[in-house]
UniProtKB/TrEMBL annotation, chains A, B:
<dbReference type="GO" id="GO:0005975">
    <property type="term" value="P:carbohydrate metabolic process"/>
</dbReference>
<dbReference type="InterPro" id="IPR009014">
    <property type="entry name" value="Transketo_C/PFOR_II"/>
</dbReference>
<dbReference type="GO" id="GO:0016832">
    <property type="term" value="F:aldehyde-lyase activity"/>
</dbReference>
<dbReference type="InterPro" id="IPR019789">
    <property type="entry name" value="Xul5P/Fru6P_PKetolase_ThDP_BS"/>
</dbReference>
<comment type="similarity">
    <text>Belongs to the XFP family.</text>
</comment>
<dbReference type="GO" id="GO:0000287">
    <property type="term" value="F:magnesium ion binding"/>
</dbReference>
<dbReference type="InterPro" id="IPR023962">
    <property type="entry name" value="Phosphoketolase"/>
</dbReference>
<dbReference type="InterPro" id="IPR005593">
    <property type="entry name" value="Xul5P/Fru6P_PKetolase"/>
</dbReference>
<feature type="domain" description="Xylulose 5-phosphate/Fructose 6-phosphate phosphoketolase C-terminal">
    <location>
        <begin position="585"/>
        <end position="785"/>
    </location>
</feature>
<dbReference type="Pfam" id="PF03894">
    <property type="entry name" value="XFP"/>
</dbReference>
<dbReference type="InterPro" id="IPR019790">
    <property type="entry name" value="Xul5P/Fru6P_PKetolase_CS"/>
</dbReference>
<dbReference type="InterPro" id="IPR018970">
    <property type="entry name" value="Xul5P/Fru6P_PKetolase_N"/>
</dbReference>
<keyword id="KW-0456">Lyase</keyword>
<dbReference type="InterPro" id="IPR018969">
    <property type="entry name" value="Xul5P/Fru6P_PKetolase_C"/>
</dbReference>
<protein>
    <recommendedName>
        <fullName>Probable phosphoketolase</fullName>
        <ecNumber>4.1.2.-</ecNumber>
    </recommendedName>
</protein>
<keyword id="KW-0786">Thiamine pyrophosphate</keyword>
<dbReference type="InterPro" id="IPR029061">
    <property type="entry name" value="THDP-binding"/>
</dbReference>
Length: 792, 792
């Protein structure tokens, strides 16, 4: 504590804040323990206590403390603030505050601000059919669940971008601070523009312990911790102690100091002053874990240790001494002073809460759908490539998309950002830099390429930060696109999980308004890692995604530039989904004109008649494909079959929307069985060339008729630094193998087919030998396009 | 640069080091560009250049610089050192050094240390059929691929644990340093014991750029960066510049200083001095990206910018001026001074390399299987629980396992560690603390629970660190077990990917010796998140794992304590696998005696005759199960069927080894079709109660006969904070639903069955109402065990 701080508040005001804090603490403990007798109007008896005691006390008192103090600052300074509760286990604390502020009762009238409502508030917590124990979507004002730790600070920065009048107070637990994602988040301040963006106030709450251990940041020398925060570019303010009255004074004074500092930074930046990265304030708040809870149990200390992490007194119903300790604990807050005769918060408390949308639990920013405005989307059709005949021209699909994305950025300067781990240019979306920079608040040197504080492209070498910033940005009512190398998007598998769970849950909460979808563009995909090899080859994110609720996940594999444009336009208009789009960045054939592409994407899959030879009749074999590289191999295989087995009726089906393969009982996009059967037949061999792991197609189609005739080729985890055609050969996805697959599965093809089979094997060998000899693919395969014969 | 540093070396010695560096740089450039004319004995012509130019130059010169200087230190000081190349893209640099040291030629005699060998070294790099572009497993001395960035420093610490005589020089790229996992790694020094463990020397190489952007750590004020490193507990040494002669002098002097410091720290700790966390030295090395490469191209700077990231001159074969620039570049290293008439490294260079296993490329630590010694494993049978009849007693499976793990720790004080993200006690492996502490080098306070510098339990709230440390520990020839909450193991999905790829690749490298398997124990699983709810419910890691090569992945779901013991004993004896074991920590029935458990685990799956009513005959229905909770529900369903439909022939099959379900053509553990059919029948309904997402079972069995009769129940992403039985009901995995599934699928059951169906529906409703009313499960289901009737 800096004893030179001014005492900003009268003792009376401090007592008021303390009362508010005690009320929130009381309501927190009540939720964890009480079934009945919420105001302790009678002595506490075992039957007043829940039979199962669930929840987390340890982090709650500090969350409540910060909440009460921020309320004062909001009221006095007129701030717009969102409270980010990193210690997500503090659900009961957050709920306590929403009830005190009245927001909870507004959303749930039965949980009224009176004794009966308080009883319901207590009973429903962590109770079957009630509310979960975290700062979950059910908690008004929360945009951060915190069940999986590490994302509080990146969510806070994401919420602050393009919200100049918003301040995010972000409480970070010292447990959470040990995680990688959180450790990387501190330097997010490099990407925040004080003129255009809001402010983030990190409050690192050192309570010293996690589940069963002390925390690293509490046990290294305090001087090192402050040095670290200084190194991250912050001005750290230490508030430390275990005496409430003292902490109230120092925290209040410190908050006044830091909000003044934030205001000064913003004022300077916004009045044409420096745009150099300012040294933002942050607070290190060192208070005991489970503060104001039971001092000890069975001779062991509880308050101030990891023993207060969950439920400090675990046997209250059976142990009279624990019951008495609980009653003492609850009464230590003096509920009789805090709630009036009806059970409502006392008038002294009610006046302390901010009004209306100034209440952190009622901030529209924390229910971002309320603020969501549609994107202004330029007509994607204008960006298409001309296609006079299938495969007549080539394009780099993501480069074509980049021009549209550029204009989306330009048309939406306040509500759309592009996120990528240093891969925006590599993924060929570089057109964006014709209209904007990469956001950058650190030193800029001559020759730097499109860096600037106003940049709308967010590039940092951390998929975690890209994902977390974007989540925070979306949850506060904006839009975005995350482009990544396909293989490394697995870095955020678990973050995707949590976001998908958030979406699923909010679909069931009437007062939560829909937000924009989280859009992934995965490029530099498994089939084209010429520079990088095996470590960069993994198409499994799709497999991961489809485990989540069908209502919130969509997967698209547009085969060319025009279908990519149509798909991405659809994704940017959608709400409450996670859209995964996989597309190549290398020159590849354009198959469909824009009109054809739109129709194809609307259907999600369909027969490519120009590549087929069944002419509307029942085919002998279906060649299905999904993904740009498999589509090329499939078209080439169909061409080989047409030339060599002209009487064979081949149908080519291309799949853009992968979820169409599932039955309509499993996914909203699922194709009804009759339509599926009409496309794929029920009894003919289907050779499916797939972008990813082949079994995913089986998992999506195992209920379909004729599944036993389905043969899937895809990535089977074979790869290295090699040529594109060598990669498909390594995984038996090449055109020659597809032809062999047809020959092996269609009966009665006769002698011609046996010869063709041999020819295909020879072609594979010739291609491999050429590649080994010259280090490049045989031009006959590398340069092949429809209409050209394949000559090896 | 600190100009007060002593100049430790003569100018002649510095010139020697410079020559070594130039040789490595020459060999690096040669690999990227040259097909032929390796020594430039004739003027460079287009046909000497590779048709596809692949690889990464930018990071290579600094990797080579550090390598050359470390060689001097190794030789002069007799150090045992491993080189961790965080910038994994520097594959050609690492290969250059292994060739200079002779190691590469020892493993690959055709790539000899002469002109012909040099030509092969050049040609094979990033060439089809050759070697990949990273510091991949193919590179002697590498235990870190670095394709996916972020793990260098955690691998280094993992390698240092229990290796007191080893120093790991860990070069960290400033791009990599932006990732979360790397950011969290710095504080690994809290867990390193200078007395018992080796040393890690982090060398943060600021070259200023990543793929297309400057790096954050280079562009924040240098003072902030040093403050950050100080905050992490290091003593940072800055070496900065772009003049080779100056850098040689300062780097040499700095290395002498830091190795002296390391030596002093270790000496003090090992001579009974302080065990407090020392301030280890680290180096910030600021050198230009692509140093010594082309200065510029087409008027734009290349050296010292992101443009040197991959191949600085990209059109050498077609552009004579670029060809000339490449020749100038290569000749600038003066190859004629560096290689003798045969093409071998000049004598002056050869004497500089350390000898034998002192060569970093030949360190046995970097081929850990060479050093691997079997664990001393106490007989797990002695730790089993007594089971007089199935379900006659309860146990917490992981707690039972904990006693065995305790004794594994005690019996292997130098080669086994237990890793967990603050969840070892929560996952009920707390018995470990009877024999050891949690490793902890920071401040210890009275009342702390088993913390100490010698602890063999590694707890930090970062799954990334647990995984990375363990990988480093395994790759250097030791053993370990990682225990985590099931849901959050997804945090390391991508790290698992990279490790599985490493294992798959090393299986094909003769000189790489097998290492111990990476063992996961996932507990606190999806079905028992009573405190935590939806965010903690995700059983999908198994789905992720089975995408990797069958030869390296194994998945086990032991249904009780004795099977868990048997399974884990098997896993700790295995090599070159990733073993995933999912087991509960809550009290649950013991089904099998130890002898039965061993036999059941050996088979991997089998009929539980005591729970079945088919008595060796063809059953009417098969109830299959995998996982502890589904097994309980299945046994209970079978019991209900026995009581209510006594004539129905029910077979109960339990699956421990999930890979047994796949055909033997797909996985080495796969069951031959005949055996599968004998267990599951080919035409009877199979109701499969599965621990995870139900479609995984379909994906494993879609090729099996009778797959159309398979009906799987599992987790379908429904959950919240609720009771255990409510959880299974939410996902239709409960005993009552399983009975209904049987009734709906077995024909001809008659009127009795219709009544039973209604009864089951009523039971579900009664259970739900009881839970909603009282907050706990109905005792009739919660307390049910075989032999007791189910009375609601």
């Amino acid at each position: 504590m800096d004893k030179t701080l001014p005492a900003p508040l009268t003792e009376a005001r401090l007592r008021q804040i303390d009362a508010y804090w005690r009320a929130a603490n009381y309501l927190t403990v009540g939720q964890i323990y009480l079934l009945d007798n919420p105001l302790l109007r009678e002595p506490l008896r075992p039957e007043h206590v829940k039979p199962r005691l669930l929840g987390h006390w340890g982090t709650s008192p500090a969350l409540n403390l910060v909440y009460a103090h921020l309320n004062r600052c909001i009221t006095e300074k007129g701030l717009d603030m969102v409270y980010m509760a990193g210690p997500g286990h503090g659900g009961p604390a957050m709920l306590a505050n929403t009830w005190l502020e009245g927001t909870y009762s507004e959303h749930h009238p039965s949980v009224s601000r009176d004794e009966a409502g308080m009883a319901r508030l207590f009973r429903q917590f962590s109770f079957p059919g009630g509310v979960p124990s975290h700062a979950a979507p059910e908690v008004p004002g929360s945009i951060h669940e915190g069940g999986e730790l590490g994302y509080a600070l990146m969510h806070a920065y994401g919420a602050a971008f393009d919200n100049p009048d918003l301040t995010i107070a972000c409480v970070i637990g010292d447990g959470e601070a040990e995680t990688g994602p959180l450790a990387a988040s501190w330097l997010s301040n490099v990407f925040l523009n004080p003129a255009r963006d809001g402010a983030v106030l990190p409050i690192l709450n050192l309570n010293g312990y996690k589940i069963a251990n002390p925390t690293v940041l509490d046990r290294i020398p305090r001087e090192d911790l402050l040095s670290m925060m200084h190194g991250f570019g912050y001005e750290p303010h230490l508030v430390e102690g275990d005496d409430p009255a003292t902490i109230h004074r120092t925290l209040a004074a410190t908050l006044d100091t830091v909000f003044d500092r934030i205001s000064a930074i913003q004022h300077e930046a916004r009045s044409g002053g420096t745009v150099e990265r300012p040294r933002w304030p942050m607070i290190v708040l060192r208070t005991p874990k489970g503060w104001t809870g039971p001092r000890e149990l069975d001779g062991k200390p509880v308050e101030g240790t990891w023993r207060s992490h969950q439920v400090p007194l675990g046997a209250v119903r059976d142990d009279p001494s624990q019951l008495a300790a609980l009653e003492d604990w609850l009464r230590s807050y003096h509920p009789e002073e805090l709630f009036d005769a009806t059970g409502a918060p006392a008038a002294e408390l009610r006046v302390q809460a901010p009004r209306g949308e100034k209440r952190m639990s009622a901030s529209p920013h924390a229910n971002g759908g309320l603020l969501l405005r549609d994107l202004v989307l330029p007509d994607f059709r204008r960006y298409g490539v001309a296609v006079d005949r299938p495969g007549g021209t080539d394009a780099e699909a993501t480069r074509v998309l980049g021009e549209w994305v550029r204009d989306v950025i330009a048309a939406n300067p306040d509500r759309f950002r592009l996120f990528g781990p240093d891969e925006v240019a590599s993924n060929r979306l570089g057109a964006a830099f014709e209209v904007t920079d990469r956001a950058w608040g650190a030193r800029i040197e001559p020759g730097d390429d499109h860096l600037g504080p106003d940049g709308r492209v967010m590039e940092v070498l951390s998929e975690h930060l890209c994902q977390g910033w974007l989540e925070g940005y979306l949850l506060t009512g904006r839009h975005g696109l995350f482009t990544s190398y396909e293989a490394f998007i697995h870095l955020v598998d678990s973050m995707f999980n949590q976001h998908a769970k958030w979406l699923k849950t909010t679909n069931g909460i009437p007062w939560r308004r829909p937000i924009a979808s989280l859009n992934y563009l995965l490029s530099s995909h498994v089939w084209r890692q010429d520079h990088n090899g095996f470590s960069h080859q993994d198409p499994g994110f799709i497999d991961h995604v489809v485990n989540k609720k069908a209502e919130v996940v969509r997967v698209y594999l547009p085969p060319d530039a025009n279908t990519l444009l149509s798909t991405m336009d659809h994704c940017l208009r959608s709400r409450q989904y996670v859209n995964v789009v996989v597309a190549g960045k290398q020159p590849a054939p354009n198959w469909l004109s824009m009109d054809e592409a739109v129709r194809h994407c609307e259907r999600g899959l369909g027969i490519w008649e120009w590549a087929s030879t069944d002419r509307g009749r029942e085919p002998d074999v279906v060649l299905a494909c999904a993904g740009d590289v498999p589509t090329l191999e499939t078209v080439a295989a169909a061409d080989l079959l047409r030339r060599h087995l002209p009487h064979l009726k081949v149908r080519v089906v291309n799949v853009v929307d992968l979820m169409r393969l599932q039955p309509d009982t499993e996914h909203p996009h699922g194709l009804p069985d009759r339509q599926y059967d009409a496309l794929f037949t029920t009894d003919k061999p289907v050779i499916f060339a797939f972008h990813g792991y082949p079994w995913l197609i089986h998992r999506l189609t195992y209920r379909r008729a004729g599944h036993e005739h389905l043969h899937v080729r895809g990535y089977k985890e074979e790869g290295t630094t090699t040529t594109p055609f060598d990669m498909v050969m390594l995984n038996d996805l090449d055109r020659f193998t597809l032809v062999i697959d047809v020959i092996d599965r269609v009966p009665g093809l006769g002698q011609n087919a046996a010869g063709l089979r041999q020819e295909m094997s020879d072609a594979r060998r010739a291609c491999r030998e050429h590649t080994r000899a010259f280090g490049v693919d045989h031009p006959a395969v590398a340069d092949w396009r429809p209409g050209r014969p394949l000559e090896l």
